[in-house]
Amino acid sequence: MKNSGNHQIRSLYNAANYKVVLLQNGEHLSLIFCLRIASMVEISDIRYSNANGTDTVMVQLNDEIVAAFATNRSTPPDWNTFMSTGRFPTRSYLDIGSNVLQMRFNATDGLTIDYIDIDVDDRLITQEIAMCDVTCIKDFNPNWQHTVVSEGLSFAMQKSYTTKCSEISNVNIPIYDKLVKTYEIVAVMPQYKSLSNPRYENTSECYHLSLFLWSFNNIMLSNVTSGSIQTDKATSYISRGGNTSDPFITILLTFNVEGRAKGMIDADRGSILTIKCSQITEQTTIKMQYKGRDALSSIEEKVIDAPADQANWEIPDFTWTDANLNSIYLYINSSSYFNFTIDALYLARRPLLPDTVVGVYKDDDVIVEAVNVDLWWLTPNAMQLTLSNGQSYNNVSYFRIYKPAIWNEGYAQIFVMYHDGNVRLLPIPPEGVDWIPFGSSVLIGQANPYDERPYSAITNVSLDIESLRMDVLYADGGSAKLELQNNLVETRLIVSNIFFGANIDFPFVTFRSMYVSIGNCDVDHVRVNGANPTHIMDDFGFIMGRSFIFYRKCTSKHLNLSPDIYINIKRSKTK
What DSSP letter does each residue of 76-143 carry, written as one string? Predict the structure, then answer.
């Protein structure tokens, strides 16, 4: 439909999508399609209709004629009678990027085209790529200086899993080297040329980020004696008093929540229980109590008066447990025959407060800010940030560093270090772009690769403001020195003087990112030691190497200008 303005579009009820392109004498049809990689391509079918005389159609891929076929007239003549060419014998090898399919002919009174089937030898091609909504680049040869002093064995392992949520770091690739002493991480702009800068989160498939932990709707209570309702998140058990005229009803709600073991905060996060009712004709008393990680709570009572139809209970932080089943009890009582409906009964996550930001340092060359996150996932632990000017800040969830943006006004964020060991780097935004988003991250420090959300908790960071050198101390007793370097092309972090404090068999660094599909990801390929690229979700087990380039070959609707990340092991030795 991209060039539908050049042709007549007609409606035919036997067409696949009820519409066809009508081609008349002297017209030709030219369709642009895109490939992710150089591929073998063949036309497997062209579906058409012809209620006039026989025509001969020439089919081209780019400048090569690949087929010719006669468009026989239907018997009896009917534009709604469609015919198929079937598969053409010619296979063509086409390059990555845009290609053109053309159909040329001399028609008597017209020809309709319903659809064209094209087979492409690429298991990862998508509709968005084929329609050129997502564009892909050829493999590039990076200017990567691979200087190594090595006595160690270095390799990356595949620990990624699939997801439909664009806000989950499902790409996890730990890198191992027991003897590593120095390595560097480099952030550069993507290799493809694009001005598209989508930079906000997309939670459309992220059900774990929903407002609700669970919900029930339209519970009819008037004739209930006992029963249960089950969803994938919770179960409700309903029982009435001693006889059907007894207005006393008990509702027991049981559910699980996810906590630190899953990298989540729901077991620590407070919540709000809401009940909405209709058909209330008189005062109704509802009592509530709950049991999570501690003993059964005291009863909290709410009274609903008509026409009011809602009651809310606030349940504090650190109530729920991820180790066992959680319970909520509702006791509902009315002075006469009980006959109303619960329209909605749900448990919602309490709103999180905005981050608390403290500007700890600012001059012409650098800005440093310390940030505290409401209910940080490793709460109550956090890290301490100590500056070379003697100032010290506690309870820091993460800190960030800005450098002047030469061609933009103000400063650009180039570095973030989190208490859990994750680091994010950004190059200075290109001219004309105010800011670009973070995407992939690198977990610096030893982390258990089997954790669902791996981390390496930091206790203290000492930051030299002049040199942007850092001494990092980990909770497991490990340590490292970091040096942040930045120019107009890249941001580089050099990690040296590495001392392992945890299990020596743990990885020393872990690459983390997001992949849903080609065109919806923060990374789609990795190159190791400059070899041919490997798709980031391939089941490669492990790959030996010392330089790793994590990048996108194809543009993305998610954080399109977030950087490519290079990790290069510079030095490994026994002493």
Answer: S--TT--EE----S--EEE-SEEEEEEEEE--SS-EEEEEEEEEES-TT--HHHHTTSS-B-------
Q: Which range among 61-65, 124-128, 223-227, 548-552 has the greatest average pLDDT?
A: 548-552
Q: Tens of pLDDT along 350-361? A: 999 999 999 999
* φ and ψ at residue 258, rounded to 5 degrees: -100, 145
Q: What does the alpha-carbon distance between residue 134 and residue 37 come to, in Å, rounded to a whole number?
A: 13
Q: Are 349 and 389 in contact (CB under 8 A)?
A: no
Query: Which is nearest to 317 in space by CA: 262, 259, 403?
Result: 259
User: What are residue 119's phi and psi, to 5 degrees?
Assistant: -95, 130
Rounded Cα distance between 493 and 495, Å, is: 6
What is the Cα–Cα distance from 307 to 410, expressed in whole angstroms? Answer: 55
- H or E segment and range at residue 346: strand 341-349
**Residue 493 near residue 424, CB atoms below 8 Å:** no
Counting Cα atoms < 13 Å in the Cβ hemisphere of 436 gives: 29
Q: Which residues pair with 251 in a beta bridge?
A: 238, 330
User: What is the token pair recorded at 228?
Assistant: 């249960």
Query: How many angstroms separate the CA atoms of 214 and 347, rounded?
Result: 6
- Give DSSP secondary structure letters for 228-281: EEE-SSEEEEEEE-SSTT---EEEEEEE----GGGT--TTTS-EEEEEEEE---
DSSP secondary-structure letter at 322? S
Measured distance CA(373)–CA(210) in Å, rounded: 19
Which 3 state secondary structure label does DSSP give 491? strand
At 540, phi and psi to the nearest 5? -90, 0
363 CB burial (10 A radius; 0-12, 13-18, 19+): exposed
Q: Looking at the whole model, is its pTM more than 0.70?
A: yes
How do 19-23 and 8-11 pair as beta strands?
Answer: antiparallel
At a CB cut-off of 8 Å and minimum separation 6, what does 123 contact?
Answer: none
Lookup result for tokens 């006669």: 70
In CATH terms, the fold of domain 4-130 is Jelly Rolls (2.60.120)
pLDDT at 224: 61
The torsion region of residue 497 among left (phi > 0), alpha (psi -120 to 50) and beta comes to: left
Which of 467, 425, 383, 421 is closest to 565 using CA atoms? Answer: 425
CB 478 within 8 A of CB 499: yes
Of 3.30.950, 2.60.40, 1.20.5, 3.90.660, the CATH number of 222-339 is: 2.60.40
In 3-state terms, what secondary structure has residue 29? strand
Pairing of strands 149-150, 564-572: parallel
pLDDT in tens, 36-61: 999 999 999 999 998 887 788 899 99
Domain spans, the chain? 4-130, 149-204+353-572, 222-339
**434: pLDDT strictly greater than 80:** yes
Residue 487 CA, chain-centre distance (Å), reads 29
